[in-house]
Structure prediction request, 550 residues.
Amino acid sequence: MSTVVKRSLPKSESKLVMAYMYVAFISLFIGATAGLLQTLERSGKFTLPSFISYYQILTVHGVILGLVLTTFFILGFMLSAQSKTTGGYNKTERRLAWTSFYVMLTGVIMATVMILMNEATVLYTFYAPLQAHVIFYIGLALVIVGSWIDGFVIFKRHARFRKENPGERTPLLSYMAVITMLMWQIASIGVAVTVVGQTIPWALGWVDGINVLLSRTLFWYFGHPLVYFWLLPAYMMWYAIMPKIIGGKIFSDSLARFTFILLLLFSIPVGFHHQLTEPGIDPFWKYIQVILTMVVVVPSMMTAFSLFATFEARGRELGAKGLFGWVKKLPWKDARFFAPFVGMLFFIPGGAGGIINASNQMNQVIHNTIWVTGHFHLTAATSVMLTFFGIAYWLIPSLTGRQYTPAMNRLAILQTVLWAVGMTIMSTSMHWQGLLGAPRRSAYSEYLGNADTAAWGSYQIAQAVGGSILFIGMIVMLVIFINLAFFAPKGSTEYPVAKVNKLEAQPPKVFENWPLWIGLTLALVLFAYTIPLIDIIQNAPPGAKGFKLW
Prediction:
């Protein structure tokens, strides 16, 4: 008796989304391997081969995981979510999405080859005056342009749903995808300008130098919203999919939409909090952007309230008593819930560390130390990645027409535990060592102060141990991915989408007033950046030419 194979999306769209997933998980293997080599080198107990430099693998680790894995996974996930909830894409939209994929893939190959050839050892931030081969910068530009094409697909499909279903509530996941891509496209203009307008002409030798402060400012105009580009798809999972997994309903559709609007407004004009120690930027504008950074705490707290209200409500439905009795009713043995929930827990210390990073006085203590690396691994590499893994557990088999088996679920629980333990060890040691002044981005690990050097060395060993456990967790994740994509029993796996409580009113129409929200976002950006950028350009170093981009 043959098993009925049932995909959650049409076969043409399943293939499209899986193409993005294949690139994402290949990137996971490459990037995590580079991360392991970094921690081993820094431990002082391992030496890299002579043909590989520490900074080369640091660049691989940052670019492949921070830009490639995340971008491909996020776009694939959002395309699948919008397709599932809006009724699918038409032929033109699918063709554009494939075009986006191939443009991005071409850019990734170009940039990766240059890094592996040691022609682009410029770290994750590719700051000037470090210079890469021009092919690296062209590759990055293609990744950005390709992502814009997918953004256009998402905008077009959402608009088509509204046109075809007048007066009907737009799907929450589609709405969230639109907000995410709006933020991404507005923010990535900054990195596109600095790459195309500054670094490519400089790498080609058309100009002798560039305005370094301007290039750093344009990068961080993009760099902090990049963090929210990683985070918002995790929020999509938390708000609109996890309630279905636990058997509940979305706590408030309107609250979820309002949260995303606030994140759109306040996630972009905040890049100066990464440049608090840099001269050339007026302290007043740093102060303004620190305030705007702290405002982002509000939608984060709204998210925490909404999610735990959902969990408690479901627990009460299942008969929970007492203040915390609902905790016992949650499906702890289901990795689709367990992995994202552990990611949420890690976001608590991650968010607290982010407040320290963005505070002018406290930032002076930890700026450019390995504390920042530890913080980054709590938020992006744990909260976000564990949520992405939780998505993959049901998304991959639902696209390939296979079953999410109990054996894979048990392995996924193990993977989550390995990742959490490894990251706790590695990140904690990074935070402590950062407080002692250990530099970030550096291969040099010797302590030059007067404290106990044995304790200092133990931090280095702890990072290597944590990194090794994480590497094992990565291998387990790849085993799960390969099984769910190719070897799990054929059948069907649910694409879980939570429903809104029937008693909840329609979201306010103003939430779909895109000219209003885009206009407010641009107004905040112009307010926060216009005068500082004019000042940076007008006061460029002697010898700058033209508009002083270089």
Summary: The two ends are 69 Å apart (CA to CA). The chain has one domain: 11-538. Confidence is low (pLDDT under 50) at residues 545-550. The domain at 11-538 is CATH 1.20.210.10 (Cytochrome C Oxidase; Chain A).
